[in-house]
Amino acid sequence: MQFGNVALIGLGLLGGSLGMALTRRGxxxxxxxxARRESTVQEALALKAVHAAxxxxxxxxxxxxxxxxxxPIGQMAELSKHFSRHLKSGAVVxxxxxxxxxxxxxxxxxFQNAECHFVGSHPMAxxxxxxxxxxxxxxFSNALCVVTPTPKSQPxxxxxxxxxxxxxxxxxxxxxxxxHDELVARSSHLPHVVAAALASYVLSPAHVPEQAALCASGxxxxxxxxxxxxxxxxxxxxTNRTYLTRSLGVFxxxxxxxxxxxxxxxxxxxxxxxxxxxxxxxxxxxALTMPCD
Length: 293
Fold this sequence. Notes:
six-stranded parallel β-sheet; globular; 2 domains; Rossmann fold; alpha/beta
């Protein structure tokens, strides 16, 4: 399946990887990218992440059949207001944001007014490294992509967005925007907050220099995602604050339970804490590796 003219708004890790995947698999007639900085435009062109790139937003989307927003969530609404009036009627727009309900609520009416169709999506792929220089054509291969239509979504637009991610070798799951946000608050957003808190605490300059020397592979693996984009994670935390706050509350209560067990020397509770975690994680990993029917 070919998707005609595709416009990528944002040429960072996700936008660059999308461009590489689309061009190298021959999934689009033409892939055009937009970036705020000319240096990013030139880098994307040098890496052949897109067929063409520009700092001119209107020119980037004018002939697009499909537009994919690949910017931080906080920029999406303002950019959409600006470029929506330059879209041709019937164009389909999606995004890669990891929060959906506020994004869908903000963008759906913008594109409806422009006689276009917005369908939210979230590919569960990425890395702590940022920028088009870290883009990879296989970033989305075997990743889960959540598509979040609403009662206002045009069925053919939903099908097109799902077909895009399937063509990029993603597994596609439909959820409502709110259900998506509740689930990723626990599985994605909470772990990023925990990793950031752990990195900030353990590597604080208040500790002696030997502290950092004793941070080995376990610390490195646990805090890897703390190296992600602060701007992106600021926007995620703010836009999904209802569900993230709720998840943080439950997590803090669990930490207080193990703190109590350690303080009181409750060996049974401590072993149960680690046993339950091991059992649940091992079961999750086993389910991931089981072949599908």
